Amino acid sequence: MTTETVNAAENAAGVVEKKRIGGIKGLIKKYENLGYKAKKKIMHFISRIFVYFVLIEMAFLFILPFIYIFSTSLMTSQDYMDPTVQYIPTTVNWDNFVKAFQALDYIPSFFNSLGTSLLSAIFQTLSCALIGYSLGRYKFRFRNIVFILVVLVLLIPPQVMILASYGLWATLSLVNTWGPVVLPAVFGLGLRGALFVMIYMYFFQRIPPVLDDSARIDGAGPVRVFGQIMLPLVKSAIAIVFIFSFVWHWNDNYEAPTYMYLEGKQTLQPRLANIRNYFNKYATSQMMSELDRALSEPMLFAGCLMVMFPVLLVYIFGQKQLAAGIERIGVIE
Amino acid sequence: MKQIKYKKKLAHSQKYTLMSFEKRRNLEGFVFSIPWLIGFLGFIVVPLVLSVRISFFQTVLTDLYGFQGTSTFVGINNYVKVIQDPSVGETVFKSFGMSLIKVPVIVAFSLFVAVLLKQEFPGRTVFRVIFFIPVILAGTIMTYLFADGVGNMSVFSSITTGSAEINTFFGTIMSNIGSIMWASSVEILIFLAALQSVPAILYEVVEIDGATAWESFWHVTLPYISPFVILNCIYALVDSFVASDNPVMSIMNSMTQEGTKYGQASALSWLYMLATLAVILIFILFTRRWLK
Asked: CB neighbours (10 Å) of residue B61?
């Protein structure tokens, strides 16, 4: 009897309470009364929505330039000048690509870019792994000094040395060959080599020492331990370094153009400026040069797309490895 | 007797007995870093020394290092000229100021993105890959794009009204928000690595103690990754100091293009490098207690 009346009273009170508080306050009240698990689920859901919202927004900002390049490269100059035409060209104009192909001097420049980037990337992936291995897994006497030197190389702007290095390469008569770009990469220096050394060092440090100890007990020498045990364990670092090295060499617009400047020896990046000047040479006044700019702009972006294309391929095919690398970087196993 | 013989056989490393085990290990480590050290001597030390030499000469291109006597030794004249040039000083200070504005924004933004990307949700690999697009597009293409106004969110800069200083401060950030975000790919990668190295057990512990996600970020994540915050600040500083769109770099380029000012360009590059190193050292001095 008594329990029933109590229950009834409680129910009545609950109904009254439900009636009294509604809206957001009621929701908060309800939320506070929930159990731990349910609370966690709801917070999780809310944070998900927030994460997706922010990330999609930003991802759009990162993809927008692609869309811009692609749509502009298909425009005619009239479309480009017309403020009512945004992103969707009125007619598809493939002619831009043909003109850009000629202005870029595409085939020799492409092979120069490909050769320097691919060779440098391969050499950097190997040589930076060597020094990264020695810094990450050994505590030899001068280790700290070598490490400080690596950091110093990271901090020295290339502009300080470019003049003197140019003179050096000129005396070795290696200017206008692939040498000045590829040779430093053989020794683990070159474009952002120090950064790659740090990435490798970081990865090698994370491998438990038990592994190489056991390999050594089984009779493996140092070279074998490095090649057969350690390198396969840092596959993700190799992917990161190779992709970044290739892409950065491909996009290099400072060192490579300085060393390789002759017509036919140039890489693709400096040739892009050539498209800009394709019409500009006829410009006489400010207004005319504005007009020339508008004329060359669709062509320029067609050229950009052609310059980007191989890098995009590397990115799309290496994307899985890269994602796996990012996934594993820093994780303690 | 037999047993002793056996022992001797086991220690088959007779060729190694010259060195102890540890010494041998250390030597191995040193040998692995020898190729890099050779490269360092050849491609870093030699050009650096030569560029110091160039900076003391009035150089012509045929005798860049002044070994043949065509170039004239001018002592510290080149340095004096660079320091006395008011436009150079102004540009250097402006570019430093710009970097000091940019760096905190880059670091904060990349930390924010890295925290979001670290979470487990379906499709995160797609987003992770998207955030590396700037690395692909970097280089000349980006300059053309920003010249065309793609990265300019002019909407933002029109919001900021108020006093002139605040306006210019936020104006520079907001009108460059695209380029700032685009400069942060490597920083995002470093932060992701740092975040993934925080042991999951720490989060479990504070969760049991009743900490919210916000609290655990401030009391677990941030203290744990603080060295990486500093590292990222340094990387972003260096990156903005040596970026090709830095006005100081264009001064250097125009000096070398004139053909007679190689000495001055070298002097300027040395002064600039020393200034940047000083800025970085001061920064490290102030932040060293978080570097551990």
From this structure: 15
Within this chain, do residues B28 and B107 fall inside the same structural domain, yes or no?
no
C-alpha count within 13 angstroms, C-beta hemisphere, residue A224: 9
Partners of residue B252 in chain A, C-beta under 8 Å: 159
Whether B113 and A59 lie within 8 Å, measured CB to CB: no
- B13 and B92 housed in the same domain: no
Domain containing B28: what range?
2-55
Q: Six-digit token pair at A9? A: 């009273």
pTM, 2 dp: 0.80
**Same domain membership, residue B227 and residue B161:** yes
Task: Count residue pairs from A and B with Cβ separation < 8 A.
Answer: 235
Question: Distance (Å, rounded) from C-alpha A231 to C-alpha A242?
Answer: 14
Q: How far apart are CA B256 and CA A216, in angstroms?
A: 55
Segments making up each domain of chain A, as ranges = 99-328
Domain count, chain B: 2
* Chain B: closest CA distance from residue A330 (Å): 4
Confirm or reject contact between A287 and chain B (CB < 8 A). Answer: no
* Residue B280, pLDDT above cutoff 80: yes
State the CATH architecture for A99-328: Orthogonal Bundle (1.10)
**Given an 8 Å threshold on Cβ–Cβ distance, is B29 in contact with A138?**
yes
CA distance A289 to chain B (A): 15
- Compare all CA atoms of chain B with the CA of A70 and give the residue at the minimum distance: B145
CA dist., res. A180 & res. B71, Å (int) = 25
Say if the Cβ atoms of A47 and B140 lie within 8 Å: no
Inter-chain contact A142–B30, Cβ cutoff 8 Å? yes
Residue pLDDT, tens place only, A99-157: 888 888 888 999 999 999 999 999 999 999 999 999 988 888 888 899 989 988 888 87
